[in-house]
Amino acid sequence: YYEAYKQTDAYKAYLAKKRLRYAEDAELKAKIKERTLNTYYANREILKQVKQQLQSISV
User: Fold this and answer.
1) pTM for this predicted structure
2) Least buried of 14, 29, 35, 59, by fewest C-beta within 10 Å?
3) 4-48 tens-digit pLDDT
4) Are 26 and 33 in contact, with CB atoms under 8 Å apart?
5) How many H helices and E strands in the chain?
């Protein structure tokens, strides 16, 4: 029965949808990771600038 079900269009559509969802998930995770890294590096740059400004003030 299960083998017969595997041949049906409904099952194939289900698999395609599942694959698409996984692909979208992976893409979303990659985007979130990238955004997080970008934010991290941007914050580091800001901190460097602030430190430099503080040093120039204290001198």
Assistant:
1) 0.51
2) 59
3) 887 888 888 999 999 988 889 999 999 999 999 999 999 999 999
4) no
5) 2, 0
Distance CA 56, CA 59 (A): 5
Burial 21-38 (b: 16+ CB within 10 A, else e): eeeeeeeeeeeeeeeeee
Residue 8 has φ and ψ, to the nearest 5°, of -75, 155
Residue 33 is part of which domain span?
A: 2-58
Cα torsion 21, 25, 27, 33 to 10°: value is 180
Instruction: Please count the structural domains in the chain.
Output: 1
Average pLDDT, whole number, for the chain?
A: 88
Give φ, ψ of 50 to 5 degrees: -60, -45
